[in-house]
Amino acid sequence: MSRFALVVAAVLLAGCPRPPAPLSGEFPPTTVADARSEDYSGGRVRWGGAIVETTPGKDATCFQVLALVLDSRARPRPTDNSTGRFVACAPGFWDPSIYAPKREVTVVGTIDGSVSEKIGDYDYTFPHVAAEVVYLWPERTYVQPVYYGGPYYWGPYWGPYWYPYFWGWYDPLPRPHRHW
User: Fold this and answer.
1) 144-148 and 160-162: which strand pairing?
2) How far apart are CA 98 and CA 130, in angstroms?
3) 121-125: long-range contacts (C-beta < 8 A, 24 or more apart)?
4) What is the average pLDDT score of the chain?
5) Rounded Cα gap, residues 147 and 166, in angstroms
6) Closest CA relative to residue 75, chosen from 8, 1, 138
7) What's the rounded Cα separation, in Å, for the pair 21 and 43?
8) Contact 91, 56 (CB under 8 A)
9) Is 69 helix (H, G, I), strand (E, B) or coil?
């Protein structure tokens, strides 16, 4: 095999998005809606979404998560379409100020029945996941492009002249730095 083919293969493989190591593996295509309607106890799942509530207990911490569709890296996609909610409980203490509402997580674990709770006045049945991995994703930063100038300006001889234009970037909502 030629060196060129090896280089092309290496570049193509490096460009393939993969989940982080704790989230890798093969999982059946079970959705939260499927688990609510049928009994999938004991099945391994990789689900993700936005945290609604984090509740530390005596021996475990439970996360109520709004389920979202995962992308090729197993990160929840920022969308308004949800497949439901689920509860994932992991052993130990997980700080609710770090695992705060609206943060994105991906959970790997086994379905362990269901839990009935209220959302407002509505009785809701949550699939319960015994979590082995709770992966907290870094916060997304959104960058808005700002346009500086244009392709033409009026020159000294009253005619449009071409010059290169530039795009600039800025963060419209700067986030404060956390000092621990």
Assistant:
1) unpaired
2) 20
3) 124/85, 125/36
4) 80
5) 7
6) 138
7) 20
8) no
9) coil
Q: What is the number of structural domains in the chain?
A: 1
- Report the distance separating Cα 171 and Cα 141, nearest Å: 8
Q: How far apart are CA 159 and CA 155, in angstroms?
A: 6
Q: How much is the pTM?
A: 0.71
Q: 68: domain CATH number?
A: 2.40.50.140
Query: Do residues 49 and 82 touch, judged by C-beta distance below 8 A?
Result: yes
Parent domain of 41: 18-136
Task: For tokens 């509505």, name the residue.
Answer: 122
Over residues 123-154, the pLDDT tens digits come to 999 999 999 999 999 998 887 776 555 555 55
In a domain, 129, yes or no: yes
> Is 167 a member of any domain?
no
In contact, 73 and 7? CB cutoff 8 Å: no
Number of neighbouring beta carbons within 10 Å of residue 25: 12
Q: For residue 45, give the amino acid letter.
A: V
